[in-house]
């Protein structure tokens, strides 16, 4: 992740523990334990659309598509002033994300 510019070394006074979450394919996804940060985060006010919102449009549809974006959150840059807020502590040191991290309260609605 360091070599791919996903994270960088940090001197942040804030840090969350790093967790590795298993994916369906057996790979591991890094995820900060942002429970404390999320408790202080104001949730985005616009809801993510649900399938029920589109049911009347989709019921006549015969062909559907599915897209799985590779490392989608890692495509969203984090503002410089916010990077220290999402720092993670690892056995190898303190790092902060340059891109959206999994586990942040508003990450799904931002994406």
TrEMBL record:
The gene is TY3B-I_426. GO terms for molecular function: endonuclease activity; peptidase activity; RNA-directed DNA polymerase activity. Coiled coil: none annotated. It holds the Pfam family RVT_1. Residues 23-111 form the Reverse transcriptase domain. It comes from Araneus ventricosus. Keywords: Endonuclease, Hydrolase, Nuclease, Nucleotidyltransferase, Protease, RNA-directed DNA polymerase, Transferase. The lineage of its organism: Eukaryota, Metazoa, Ecdysozoa, Arthropoda, Chelicerata. The keyword Methyltransferase does not apply. This is Transposon Ty3-I Gag-Pol polyprotein. CDD domains: RT_LTR (cd01647). GO terms for biological process: proteolysis.
């Amino acid at each position: 992740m360091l070599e791919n510019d996903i994270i960088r070394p940090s001197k942040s006074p804030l840090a969350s523990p790093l967790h590795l979450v298993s994916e369906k394919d057996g790979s591991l996804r890094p995820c900060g334990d942002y429970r404390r940060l999320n408790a202080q985060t104001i949730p985005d006010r616009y809801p993510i659309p649900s399938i029920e919102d589109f049911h009347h449009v989709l019921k006549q549809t015969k062909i559907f598509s599915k897209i799985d974006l590779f490392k989608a959150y890692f495509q969203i840059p984090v503002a410089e002033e916010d990077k220290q807020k999402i720092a993670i502590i690892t056995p190898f040191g303190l790092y902060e994300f340059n891109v959206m991290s999994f586990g942040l309260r508003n990450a799904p609605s931002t994406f």
